[in-house]
Amino acid sequence: MGQYTYLAGEAVLAISALALLLVGTFGKTKSVSFIRYASIAALVVFALSGYITGAEGNAFADSFISDGFSRYAKALVGLSAAAALWFSRSYFKQEKLDQFEYSILVLFAVLGMGLMVSAGNLLTLYIGLEMQSLALYVLAAFNRDSLRASEAGLKYFVLGALSSGILLYGMSLIYGFTGSLDFGAIGTYISGTEHLSAGITAGLVFILAGLAFKISAAPFHMWTPDVYEGAPTPVTGFFAGAPKLAALALITRLIMGPFETVPHSWQQVIVVLAVLSMIIGAFGALTQTNIKRLMAYSSIANMGYALVALAAASQAGVEGMLIFMTIYLITVTGTFACILQMRTRDGMVEQISDLGGLSKDNLPLSLAFTAMMFSMAGIPVFMGFLGKWFAFAPAFEAGLTWLVVLALLSSVVGAFYYLRIVKTIWFDDQTHSFVKPPVSLAFLTSTSALFLVAAWLMPFITAPARGLIETAAASLF
Amino acid sequence: MFEGIPILTIITFLPLLAAGFLTLMSKLSRADGKGQIETNAPRVALVTTLAVFGLSLLLLVDFHAADAAYQFTENRDWLGGGIKYRMGLDGISILFVVLTTFLTPLCIIASAKSIKTRMLEYMVAFLILETLMIGVFCAQDMVLFYFFFEAVLLPMFIIIGVWGGKDRVYASYKFFLYTLLGSVLMLAAMLWLYHYSGTVLGEPTTDIRTLQQLDIPAGAQTWLWLAFFASFAVKMPMWPVHTWLPDAHVQAPTSGSVILAGVLLKLGGYGLIRFSIPMFPDASIHFAPLVFWLSVIAIIYTSLVAYRQKDMKKLIAYSSVAHMGFVTMGIFAMNVQGMQGAVFQMISHGVVSGALFFTVGIIYDRMHTREIAFYGGLVKYMPIYAAVFMLFTMANVGLPGTSGFVGELLTMVGAYQVNPWIAFGAAFGMILSAVYALHLYREVVFGEVKNEKLEGIKDMNMREIIIMAPLVIMTIVLGVYPSLITDISAVSVDQLLADFADKVGGN
Lengths: 477, 507
What we know:
heterodimer; A: 477 residues; two-stranded antiparallel sheet; two-stranded antiparallel ribbon; 74% helix; B: two-stranded antiparallel ribbon; 2 strands
């Protein structure tokens, strides 16, 4: 067995994805529900697998790494994907789109993400990334009869293919100049040379550009608003969560791995990405009227904040990024569960103005939505504030004071558009009456809202989570 | 009395508990029980806030004024990384806690009649607000402080935005974004302090007491001081960042205005005393002249602006800015009289300006307008009201015998020792305050009844007398016997100034 136990989680995913594919093919429409629940179960097992087996080490000539970092990242990815499957149920039923392929595609995407966060080799990196991306392209166009969804899928695919090309080119440069695909060997080569050759730097910049596309960091963010708007809402919710973390984890593994000794070669790139993302995310959202497009800009800005933590190039920075992303994933899951509840008798609505006077109609949903928005804005009492605190604190140690000040100022601009949603909910007159939301969604929104409000009262949850994050970050150094 | 009881946690979170209870009740009740809940919500809120007030009085009794150390302290693990749940009170902060718990029940009584819609939500928002306000003054940890300090914005945003006047959305946005912009700069400075404490002490900490003992390089102090000042100056508010206040006051419902003027404005002054002076002494000395001039400009300029206002609430709002000018002036005099005066002035202004907003609220509830020109000759129909209004007008002017006099006198004595011209300017501002306050009083209360709509306007009813009575008593008692306040804060103020002198002398 040996090194195969490291892949236990991935094996569960792969086997269940294939088996469920068969079930779906032969089981007709009746099996859709079963497949969804089985997939959720598989995702939860995948999420916990690292902690259950406790296996730690490298497999297959170091091309697959299982350590504290990959475990924590997989736990987050798996759980947020499971939540995304969970909240897709009512939507697809009501939109008459309920096909079993959706669950299978999510499983394959997560399998790719599992490979990404465990990558120890440029090839694993690429395979993982492509596996994830291909599944995501299809998911974006899942509602194939809708023009908007097809457009979103196509746009995502074309630009995604372009970014993969950039990524591959960067990889080839690195391979050419270092003579290896293996992270460890590349690292040894780099730390052994006195002057980093321009080819390696160029290769790294290309790779980072390709990955920046995946986390929709500016200036590689153009696809985000259109894809977010066009894709079916639960798919958008999925996009905003797990894939972002997986790609960020991949970036982290790369820059804190082989390129750890030469932070000057990538720090500037990360800083530029962070600055542009924060500014474009903040100002781009100001004029949006569609809530999904708003969330797209919000996720661009949030990736900028996460990159601020990484720019610190320290263990505390990785910790900060993981704390920030954990809170971000919870918030974004809850927010999309809220958005999915915006359903009138005539179908889904997506305009911010449609939320008018929600507080008179549905108080629990209004409270939860308000909590999400304030949390995203980073106002204290909500966990979003702590995410920002821990993400920005390490950047000070790296002497990036101006970057932190900029991040905080851009979060004030961000507060403006989050406030607009709160304002619409509480101050405006009622425009629609939403239909009663299914229990699954209400449950998801209220638990995540409750967490965002009250987690700081629950040291029995936050303390162990802090411990896991610390081990995760420590395992990279 | 409170050995082993986490009394500060209880006082802080009791209102929150009541808020949770009310929410739960409304959730559990059947549709036909909603009306009942709407009527009971103010009662629950009143009982809770009175209980909190009672507890805070017990705290005051149990407080050892001769002891400069923090009392009723609590220290628990919280978020890790040196961030702990630290609570405690000294002679300065306990006064603000009592001020908060004193004003809140009055606000609840007032709003039980003047709020017409969504009573339950209003009470919930108010109870949450009380928790956060008490929390700010109890927090002895920087992150905990910021938590409460910033979170106060949320219920206030909702209170102004939902129950406010015509331009409520504009006012609530302005209020929120103005203060948030100031606060994020403070947050940046806090992050720097957190990082710096890690490099100096080995372990990062956010304990305010420990941070006060750090020696921070003078260059860094300048920036940190400015960042903190950005936040506190907006909260105070100081000229020229005061423009959010008149808008917020005019749009907020009466009890919202009372809390805004009574407690929220004090957060800025309290922050200056708690953070800026002890942590950045060199920068404080360096910037003191700037603060002096800003204060004097605030006192004179906003007094002049106040005189020209047509809206009663706006007038009082501008007068608040002027009075807060005395506070900043006193704090940065950095001597006992100035500091004591600043603390006293804040408490006194909390009572007096709160009372003034109540007096405006009383006639607003009857006539639904705050325009000064609308009124006139109210004394004919409302003799009790005229008397009460007279008292608070005098207190606002700073007439001897009222609480307003003591604070202004002390701060001016403090400032005189540093710079006589500043004290002169402030004294000139006092004359101007008489101009606008008496102008307001004359226009509204005296003169002929020109407006026939005012015929037969009713005098204060029992509810309003109950609200005003404690405020009247406090204004006079504090004016006649100021030691009630100064005795409690004396030792803490001395300690603060002694530490300050040590740090400046040591460098």
